Amino acid sequence: MSFTADVKEELSRVAPTCSHCEQATLSALVRIEGSLVLSGGGKMALEVDTDSPPTARLMVKLLHELFHLKTELTVRRSVLHKTPNYLIEVPMQAALPDALRELGIISETGIRSGIPSQLVEKRCCAAAYLRGAFLGGGFIASPRGDFHFEIALEASDLADDIARLMERSDIPAKIMQRRNNFIVYLKSGAAISAFLALAGAHQSALAMENERVIKSVRNEVNRRVNAELANQQKATDASAEQVRAIRIVVGRYGMDALPPALQEFIRLRVQHPDATLKEIGLLADPPLSKSAVYHRVRRIEQLAAQIS
Questions:
Q1: Which of 152, 176, 200 is the last residue of a domain?
Q2: In a domain, 180, yes or no
């Protein structure tokens, strides 16, 4: 299973916090996945099309339990993608218009846009609506790769409302348009974990946090290793330059003509070509500070520059 499927499975089993949470979840599902089928005389039916088994299961459950609506479920399999698709049909019935009004899908004047404020006044109901929104149009990449979370929506006002719901809980969402859809998305691992925890997918949130920790440790180790390799390369390059200068100076003056301090440094550098200046200072007798060793290096480089 994909991580998205795992999250949706977990979200579909979250127990409501208050008596209105399930209504908020169902409202989001109908808004995102549903289509109204209108006929003469103001008659209407509802169709919901989803490729998520837990979403289909939850929709049927809520339609039955909250509004006692009759539903017909058809499982279709795509020849092209070889994945099942679930069509939930809610045929025309006396209780359907009232249910749609209560869910904030329609009003006395027609189809409503955005999220009705009364459905999401409580924090728990706002979280339930976001739970339904993800179940209806959500995608989340595996946390082992790049962090990416999105909810695809057909209406810009609904995208704006969902982003605002997230911001109420300090989850910074952004919106972009992709072809005919409006995408509410998150790119931060911390923001994605916060959404999952808010919506009730606590096991998925823990999985996200675990991967975040692993990535953080791996990145820190890589940073330190790269820094160490860079330092070693610098030390190697510096040592090579010092050996080159030593050859020039010794070739011109000979060892015996040089001051004892320079002779000592030359012997230590030749014997320990990979040592840092600090390490050479510790090998000297008596030990020298790094600045004292560097002073001797500069003297040899100056002599070599005068010869060249």
A1: 200
A2: yes
